[in-house]
Write a structure and sequence with these properties.
Largest sheet: 5 strands, antiparallel
CATH topology of the largest domain: Aminoglycoside 3'-phosphotransferase, Chain: A, domain 2
Oligomer: single chain
Structural class: alpha+beta
CATH architecture of the largest domain: Alpha-Beta Complex
Order of helices and strands: EEEHEEEHHHHEEEEHHHHH
Strand content: 15-25%
Bound molecules: adenosine-5'-diphosphate, magnesium ion
Number of strands: 10
Radius of gyration: 18 Å
Number of domains: 2
Distance between the termini: 53 Å
Amino acid sequence: MKRIAEGRTAEIFQEHHESVIKLYRSGFPKDAIIYEYEITKQVASLGISVPMVHELVEMEGRIGINFEYIEGKPLLQKMAEHPQELDDFAEILAEMHVTLHRCEVPADERGKPFRKQKEMLAHNIHQAPQLSTDEKHAILQILEALPNGNRVCHGDFHPDNAMVGEKRWIIDWMTGMVGHPAGDIARTLILFRYGTLPEAAPSHVKDQLQAMRERMGHVYFNYYLAHSNLQMDEIDQWMLPVAAARLTEWIPEEEKDQLRSVIRERLKLK
Ligand SMILES: Nc1ncnc2c1ncn2[C@@H]1O[C@H](COP(=O)(O)OP(=O)(O)O)[C@@H](O)[C@H]1O
Ligand SMILES: [Mg+2]
């Protein structure tokens, strides 16, 4: 099998022309993999364009998911290959997010199988070792006052998880949930502003993207605002809890330091 891509959590192998195996790194929590498997099926049944999910597999002690092979490229790669078309790609990304957020999760699926955004955020904020008890308490109170929302949210929507070809597909659903679009947008903005790129990305791609990131975030955000009913301040309210929740992820220390200073600044303003 040929390895065709690699992310932070998994390697992607092409099995034959029609299918790939997303093989998680060893030790990766099994329940999270099963959640991705189930939630991807569920969002497909709601009419969202995702690769078809075939089955769970085990290879050399590692767990994987067998997916339909997507004949397309992630927007991140398109941006690196055609930097002059950056604005167009950032708009496609925003358009995909607007379309996703129109999709409502049926009432009987909220909570199970779809995890709830505010519960997920609260869970992660509780775990964040870099925050004091008082800081956590203040952030959790802010989160509590935010609206629940009933839309499909991706939880990690960025240009490497949006694929385009003859169609468009959203991939990588491990953080998929039911929630408020404003929180999902805040997450994407935080990734654009403070995110570091996977170590595996070639350095020329990294340098190029680092420089273009701010621009992408700007175009993406303006397009989203212009094509949805959300206001900037509704989204801004989610920045603090979403940034705090990200502290529990597998991200570089320098990114955590940066997030922590953003969190402290925002808490001071409250
Ligand atoms: N079904 C698929 N068909 C073709 N390529 C895929 C497919 N799924 C993932 N990929 C490629 O693998 C990369 C990583 O996949 P992803 O599910 O986002 O894993 P990770 O959780 O590690 O980010 C994607 O950016 C894409 O390039
Ligand atoms: Mg990914």
